[in-house]
Amino acid sequence: MRGGSLRPEEWRRVYAAADTVISLTGSGGKQFPADKVYQVSPRTFEVLACGGFYLVERKRDLESLFQDRTHLVMFDSAAQAVELARRYLREPEERRQIARQGREFVLGHHTYDHRAREMLTVVCRLLDASARPAGAAS
Predict the structure, then answer these.
(1) Sign of CA dihedral 56, 110, 12, 88
(2) 8-109 belongs to which homologous superfamily?
(3) pLDDT tens for residues 1-20?
């Protein structure tokens, strides 16, 4: 994708058409302590929602949100990424199944609508708590 950027509809086509989307999230391929780079990239949700097979660097938050080899595939090193990419390119049905499960999971649990509902629930809970007189039981 050199020399420019893609519009969202183009990214959707790229992610869905690619045999494998590989990502070195947060580190750019450098080795950082696991406790320093652990967040989930928005790309994770984008690739999975588009039905892409996602091969991604293992991160703590990824492990808390997704099941490895069920929704996506995580790797711990560049060598392992190459090995896994080769393996899944030889196993197209397994690759498609993981991509399908990842898409279903993201659309069922991790959309903007889900996040908005969670935020509204928290805000309502906080507003309810602040409306009670001091010392009242919850």
Answers:
(1) positive
(2) Glycogen Phosphorylase B; (3.40.50.2000)
(3) 555 788 888 988 999 899 99
The whole-angstrom separation of Cα 112 and Cα 118 is: 10
Among 29, 49, 43, 33, residue whose Cα is nearest residue 101: 49
Domain ranges of the chain: 8-109
The structure tokens 């805000």 sit at: 123
Nearest-5° Cα angle at 36, 33 to 41: 115
Q: Kind and range of the H or E element at 57?
A: strand 54-57
Q: Does this model's pTM top 0.70? A: yes
pLDDT tens per residue across span 72-127:
999 988 899 999 999 999 999 999 999 999 999 999 999 999 999 999 999 999 99
Position 37, amino acid = V
What distance in Å separates the CA atoms of residue 26 and residue 38, rounded to the nearest whole number? 8
